[in-house]
Amino acid sequence: MEKFTHIISTAVPLPMEDVDTDQIIPARFLKATTREGFGDNLFRDWRYHPDGSPKADFVLNNPTYSGKILVAGKNFGCGSSREHAAWSLTDYGFKVVVSSFFADIFRGNALNNGLLPVQVSPAFLHEMFTAIENDPQTKFIVSLEHQTIAIAGTEREEQFDIDPFRKVCMLNGYDDIDYLLSLKDEIEEFERVREGEKKEVLI
Amino acid sequence: MAKTLFDKIWDAHIVKPVEGGQDVLYIDRHFIHEVTSPQAFDGLRQRNIPVFRTKNTVATADHNVPTINQHLPIADPLSRFQVEKLTENCEEFGVDLYGLGHRWQGIVHVIGPELGITQPGMTIVCGDSHTSTHGAFGTIAFGIGTSQVEQVLASQCLLLKRPKRMRITVDGELAEGVVSKDIILYIISKLSAAGGTGYFVEYAGSAIRSLSMEARMTICNMSIEMGARGGLIAPDETTFEYVRGREFAPQGAAFEAAVAKWRELYSDPEAVFDKEYHYRAEDIAPMITYGTNPGMGVPVNEAIPTAPTPGDSLASFEKSLGYMGFAAGENLLGKPIHHVFIGSCTNSRIEDLRLAAKFVQGKQKAPHVSAMIVPGSKQVEQQAKAEGLDKIFIAAGFEFREPGCSACLGMNEDKVPAGEYCVSTSNRNFEGRQGPGRGRFWRVR
Ligand code: SF4
User: How far apart are CA B73 and CA B7, in angstroms?
Assistant: First the structure.
């Protein structure tokens, strides 16, 4: 996983609520057996007509908007647990998703793939949408170290929460598996103790 | 100290608490399938490590399989490749696979309980959000992403933050014709599609107790549709009798010993939940959804609301009705439909098929409607045939298919064409979920 410290970028607005993972990456694109190439089909059915031509009114097809930050309405990433949703966002080039609320599984999947979910207050989200609407070139500054997101050129800044362990992982580019593998002895000890206590019926 | 059922199970599985409030949690059972596992196996290969506990892992092919002619090679090359990849991976890593052609093949959340692999008190995960189904047995069961599939394969553990606990109590007696699908659609319509986010839900109350195991599974299955991580129900005699004698259940004296332990799995009377809701079974009517999130449900004979319900904005309410082609205030009864889909891990068990057969027996579908029954597993398919249900469906003009996820997510050929309506027993009414058409769900248990 790549290290993440901070980002300064313009943002792509997607002011829709309840964006579910079926929209982020429709099921028919889940037939791949590798992690690459999902970006082409990100938001596929919102982005392209059935004949493959781009839908002019969808934000990813609008050259006015670009950047490594996606700003979306509340309850982003609900629905299916498919990690392909996180892969398609990172493969497309997003490093940060901002919303006022994230679905649990999506949040975890994003963090495991170096995509930072930044949860802001509904008011700040609204300010971000307004700022982008007024000037699509508005830059945002996301610092993982300080856990802040700011609208460049203004005083507006907000703190965001992140689990301390996840933060360290992202700053250093580790994923959970490195950590879990280091615990092998303790896991085996847990299994032994549980067996010894005849707790096997709980297994 | 008084504990909730959830906490009793969670605490028994902590290998080690980690700074910052997370726990390393031991996972008892891991189900895998073709769609969310190939990248995880690749990860193991790259790190050159084995599957840590092969006996805790079970695989099946379900998401991406055809539901006709399963004995023939899969026609779609990408699907075939993915299913073959699963077989290769299971062979290479020594994981048991009940794939196509096996008498135990089926939707992962149908076969786990049916084979007795799912047992009270366990922690269970799978790379599919409806893993919450297994909670009906008093387990902590939830969906995970592929990175986590890799973690469980590598270490039999996950690093997790304990969710908050919610209890939803439904007391009273259900009215005639109201089934468990109606209970959960009613609850989600009250709490909204995000109302359970951050929580693990325990379902309690006399109405829940009165349900069969299959009906309980339908409720726990849809916990995720209100955003909850999962849902569980304390095991009782109904649970023990269901598990008794199944293939992978403990047998004889070991079973009795297990039951004695399982009886301790309940929330202590003084246990405190972070949130509680109470509903009356008598208030619940047969439900249907009209929109594109599972919170958009109404009693079948009531009109679509004229304003968004709590949890939905006006914009998403309008967008949703636009997609479905419905008007606010309109009644759904009498609307023409094009497709019927009875299947998915929500409603493809034998009780569901029996109920559906009761409705269609001696009747004929309209000529313009296509109707499909997709049993949840080979065993369900065989049982339905033994009871002659397949004949009833076929006589009514339905197709009786072979097991798989099918039109629930439309990865195979079973899709709803653009602009057409489908009444469906599956769990998600998202835009495009069942193909480009307008899927939405019906009740049928
Ligand atoms: S039937 Fe649908 S929800 Fe259930 S496991 Fe298959 S795809 Fe997932």
Answer: 46
Q: Smallest Cβ distance to B20: which of A80, A164, A177? A: A164
Cα B390 off chain centre by: 23
| Contacting residues for B237 by C-beta, under 8 A, at least 6 apart | none
pLDDT tens string A37-91? 899 999 999 999 999 999 999 999 999 999 999 999 999 998 877 889 999 999 9
The DSSP bridge partners found for residue B200 are: B165, B230
Residue closest by Cα to atom 4 of ligand 1: B345
The tokens describing B356, both together, are 């559906």
Q: Are B73 and B84 in contact (CB under 8 A)?
A: no
Q: What is the largest CA-CA distance in chain B?
A: 63
A103 to chain B, closest Cα gap in Å: 7
**Count of CB atoms within 10 A of residue B117's CB?**
21
Note the ipTM here. Answer: 0.88
Question: From the list A23, A28, A112, which residue is nearest B147 (CB)?
Answer: A112
Tens digits of residue pLDDT in B215-271: 999 999 999 999 999 999 999 999 999 999 999 999 999 999 999 999 999 999 999
Candidates B43, B26, B82, B79; CA nearest to B59 is B82
The answer to whether the CB of B422 falls within 8 A of the CB of B324 is: no
Candidates A19, A30, A33, A119, partner chain B, best to mutate (most B CBs within 10 A):
A33
Tokens found for residue A2? 């790549």
